[in-house]
Amino acid sequence: MSGNILVSVQGWDADKWRAEFVKAAPSRIIFVDPEGAADPSVKYAAVWKQRPSSLAKLPNLRVIFSLGAGVDHVFQDPDLPSVPIVRVVSDDLTMRMCEYIVWQVLDHHRLGPKYRRQQRNHIWLEERAQPAAHQVTVGFLGLGVLGSDAARKVAMLGFNVTGWSRKPRYSQNITCFNGDEQLPWFLATVDILVCLLPLTPQTRGFLNKGLFDRLKKGGTFGAPILINAGRGGLQNERDILQALEDGVLSAASLDVFNVEPLPTQSPFWTHPNISITPHAAASSAPDQLVGPIVAQIEAFERGEPLRNMVNRVAQY
Ligand code: NDP
Ligand code: OXD
């Protein structure tokens, strides 16, 4: 029998998600938390930072669909039911992330922040040496759905590309490293470090002094540049500021933060070498994501296996 759907989101507009679910699944009842929180007809939950315990009383819940690619927010719930968790894998989201990474890599490579500073001060300074793309190595922490796509496209622009993952990966245009043992070799290659790791118990605080100190010294930009679009919890923010101060990093583009929205008093806002975007690298678009979720529900009810399931032990 077909099941109804509970939408449980915080920080996003629940009505927009409800409207898309109503359009895509007109024969099902779409509840928005706290409605339907113990309704036996609810078999599916679609969540972004669900209210803690909001799923615990659903007696017939079968699947949790994360409305984002990352699922750390799902695991924040101390009463998380033990049903399969499915995450977003979507060409739309992948393309959005690729645009953000390519934008940031090219902006740093083509000295965007420096030229904008010059323009603000009416300075015409022609003599900046512009390195060629092939003289720059862009290293990706995380070669999953988003990291591998962006890495391939950055390689197409002529950059050297390296990547690091948990398990071994192979790619024609990317030099791949994996595991703790190969991390120092990977870090030693990098001029621009792109982080697209998930936030898990293993990766929390991963972008810290110990890691920055193992990055290449000097290099094309004087020191490596950090781009983090993974999660704020991956980064030690004090260590980023110190690394910029010490010249261990030369600049950073940050889309994600320990606390979001970024507090107004954060020193990141005014730091001359930090570019900020408001967790906007790859936003989940209801009109792009709901249709495929409903299609998965229909396939599941026909007895087909779920796709893009999260490993509950690894938490990604
Ligand atoms: P995937 O699960 O497809 O890929 C994760 C990658 O990280 C894999 O290559 C995986 O290794 C690697 N990894 C995980 N844990 C470790 C570890 N302990 N050591 C080494 N490598 C590890 O995720 P996606 O590519 O789809 O997404 C990545 C993240 O991007 C999301 O989790 C989310 O946090 C973030 N995101 C941010 C958005 C934004 O707007 N800022 C939007 C969407 C996502 P392996 O290949 O071996 O499994
Ligand atoms: C996601 C996000 O994980 O938007 O999809 O951060």
Layout of SSEs?
Elements: E1 4-9, H1 14-24, E2 30-32, E3 42-48, E4 63-66, H2 72-75, E5 85-86, H3 91-109, H4 112-120, E6 137-141, H5 145-156, E7 160-165, E8 175-178, H6 179-187, E9 192-195, H7 209-212, E10 225-228, H8 237-245, E11 251-254, E12 274-276, H9 286-301
Parallel strand pairs: 1-2, 1-3, 3-4, 4-5, 6-7, 6-9, 7-8, 9-10, 10-11, 11-12
The structure holds NADPH dihydro-nicotinamide-adenine-dinucleotide phosphate and oxalic acid.
NADPH dihydro-nicotinamide-adenine-dinucleotide phosphate (NDP) is lined by residues 68-70, 97, 142-147, 165-167, 169, 196-200, 202-203, 229-231, 255-256, 279, 281-282, 316.
Which labels suit this protein?
29% helix; 316 residues; binds oxalic acid; five-stranded parallel β-sheet; alpha/beta; elongated; seven-stranded parallel β-sheet
Write down the Rg: 21 Å
Major sheet summary line: 7 strands, parallel
Work out the strand percent: 15-25%
Across the major sheet, the strand order is 8-7-6-9-10-11-12
Q: What small molecules does this complex bind?
A: NADPH dihydro-nicotinamide-adenine-dinucleotide phosphate, oxalic acid
Overall structural class, as computed from helix and strand content, comes to: alpha/beta
Summarize the amount of helix as a percent range. Answer: 25-40%
The whole-number mean of residue pLDDT values reads: 97
Uncertain runs are none
How many distinct helices?
Answer: 9
Net shape:
elongated
